[in-house]
Amino acid sequence: MYLIYLLLLKVILSKYNRTKALHYVYKYYKNPNHKCGFGRWQCTPYGYFGNTHCKYSRSDDDSSNFVSQVLIESGHPKIIGDKCKGIPCGVEINANNLAYCLKNNFKWKSECKKNLAPPKYIREGDIVIYYKDGCYEGKASAYVVTVKGSNAKVSGHTPECKDSAYIKFAKEKSFIEWLHYDD
User: Fold this and answer.
1) What is the mean pLDDT of the chain?
2) Burial grade of 181 (CB within 10 A; 0-12, 13-18, 19 or more)
3) Radius of gyration for the chain, computed over Cα atoms and rounded to the nearest angstrom
4) What is the pTM assigned to this prediction?
5) Cα(165)–Cα(76) distance, rounded to whole angstroms?
6) Which has the higher per-residue pLDDT, 54 or 74?
7) Are 131 and 173 spatial neighbours (Cβ–Cβ below 8 Å)?
8) Where are the domains of the chain?
9) Is CATH 3.90.1720 the right assignment for the domain spanning 2-180?
10) Helix runs in the chain, H state only
11) Which of 93, 121, 133, 157 could pair with 66 as two cysteines, CB 3.0-4.6 Å apart?
């Protein structure tokens, strides 16, 4: 039964499209995929937790919300399962839970430690999470890998985060988790 579950999971995940992921990142990194005026939680089509548009106060969850949108718009199944909030629009709003969810419910490969350089297998469309107090501890931020290699670049939901050197964000949050979807 477990083997059937793994095969079914592989078929479901095979829909994730890295090219679509990068397209979404570059289309929405500086503007939300959200209509202002309805509230940050409203699915228009997604909620928005940033502060550069809509005059909302900034939330630390904007980065993981954006990464979840990238995943869903790129064919990944909705972020649901154990420790996956998936609310209100099927997106995750907490980087710690997003990492847990991808590893445990969708079998993404994970490595985390202080100042961890990108593993050789990391590719465009993979995810990086930065933690402040230790792996899986404290405040965390999520980004999409947009350029692979030892000098990986990552992008988030603001113009200053477009194709930034991955090490830029390690100054404040030095514990780095790389998440890889094995296709």
Assistant:
1) 83
2) buried
3) 15
4) 0.84
5) 25
6) 74
7) yes
8) 2-180
9) yes
10) 2-13, 18-28, 62-73, 95-106
11) 157
**7 — pLDDT class (breaks 50, 70, 90):** very low
Exposure string (b/e) for 43-65, b if CB count within 10 Å is 16 or more? ebebbbbbeeebebeeeebbbbb
Burial tier of 72 (Cβ tally within 10 Å: 0-12, 13-18, 19+): buried
Q: Compute, in degrees rounded to 10, the torsion defined by CA atoms 29, 30, 34, 40.
A: 100
Would you place residue 41 in the very low, low, confident or very high pLDDT band (cuts 50, 70, 90)? confident
Residue 89 has pLDDT above 50, yes or no: yes
- Amino acid at position 44, single letter: T
pLDDT at position 44 over 70:
yes
| Cβ–Cβ under 8 Å, residues 33 and 45 | yes
Sign of CA dihedral 157, 95, 49, 23: positive
Mean pLDDT of 156-164: 85
DSSP 31-50: S-SB-TTS-TTS-SBS----
Q: Which residues have a Cβ under 8 Å from the Cβ of 96 and sit 6 or more positions away?
A: 129, 131, 136, 140
Identify any residues that bridge with 153 across adjacent strands, giving them in sequence order: 147, 165
* Pair 177, 111: CB distance under 8 Å: yes
- In this model, does residue 13 exceed pLDDT 70? no
pLDDT above 70 coverage of the chain, percent = 86
